[in-house]
Structure formats: C-alpha cells, structure tokens
C-alpha cells in the first residue's frame, strides 16, 4: 500500500506537497490567473507554484488555459476530479481548524 511505485502514493505526494493542498483549496473558490494564485497562496515562490501547477495539471486535477496575448494570460481551474479532491481537502481543513485549539493544547502538554 505504501510502495513508492503505487500510483495512489505518487498522486498523494503531489496533492500533499507543501503547496499542493493550498493551490487546490485556492482554486476551489474559482479559477485564477497565475499571479492571483501567487498572491492567494502566501509564501509560495514563482518556481514552486509553477512546479506544483505542472504536477497538478499532469495529474488531471487542474486545467490550464493560455490566452494568446502579449504577454500570455494563463488561467487555472479545477477539473471535475480536482473539485472532488478539493472538497475532501476542504472538509479535512475545516475539521482541523475546528480542533486546532485542542490539538495545540495537546502539543503544549506533550512538550512540557
């Protein structure tokens, strides 16, 4: 199940990468251009955002549309598969946010 060659493990690596979750959650609110995503995902560099988007597009979770303008305008959004993924991630994030104080209290006790 946790074998590196397992397709599910490979996809999960992209989704749960440092920036993958945040990109999917940001796009769950609607399609965004590259610079809008960079502003929405606090702390991500252009290089890491580009790599993350490339992986998520390659996995079929995100679509990419390029307008033939100068400079090109690139817009990203969630595919149907990406919407399902983001919905589940959103539920997990909501649960964590609702329990964050309890978790932080437990962490403080464990560190004491």
Give the topology.
Elements: H1 7-15, H2 20-27, E1 32-33, H3 34-40, H4 46-58, E2 62-67, E3 73-78, H5 80-111
Antiparallel strand pairs: 1-3, 2-3
Helix pairs in contact: 2-5
Protein model, in words:
- Helices cover 62% and strands 12% of the residues.
- With 112 residues, the chain is of the alpha+beta class.
- The protein has a three-stranded antiparallel β-sheet with strand order 1-3-2.
- Helix 2 packs across helix 5.
- It is globular.
User: How does the helix and strand content classify structurally?
Assistant: alpha+beta
How much is the radius of gyration in Å?
16 Å
Q: Let me know the number of strands.
A: 3
Kindly report the spatial arrangement of strands forming the biggest sheet.
1-3-2
Distance between the termini: 36 Å
Supply the number of helical segments: 5
Q: What is the overall pLDDT average?
A: 93
Unreliable stretches: none
| Largest β sheet strand count, sense and barrel closure | 3 strands, antiparallel
- From N to C, what is the helix and strand string? HHEHHEEH
Helix proportion range: 55-70%
Seen as an oligomer or otherwise, the chain set is single chain
What's the shape?
globular
Q: Work out the strand percent.
A: 5-15%
Can you describe this structure in just a few lines?
With 112 residues, the chain is an alpha+beta fold. The chain has helices at 7-15, 20-27, 34-40, 46-58, 80-111, and strands at residues 32-33, 62-67, 73-78.
């Amino acid at each position: 199940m946790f074998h590196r060659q397992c397709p599910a493990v490979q996809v999960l690596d992209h989704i749960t990468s440092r920036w993958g979750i945040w990109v999917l959650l940001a796009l769950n609110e609607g399609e965004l251009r590259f610079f809008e995503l960079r502003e929405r995902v606090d702390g991500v560099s252009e290089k890491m955002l580009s790599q993350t988007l490339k992986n998520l597009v390659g996995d079929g979770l995100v679509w990419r549309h390029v307008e033939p303008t100068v400079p090109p305008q690139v817009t990203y959004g969630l595919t149907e598969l990406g919407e399902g993924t983001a919905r589940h991630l959103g539920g997990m994030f909501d649960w964590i946010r609702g329990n964050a104080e309890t978790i932080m209290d437990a962490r403080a006790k464990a560190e004491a």
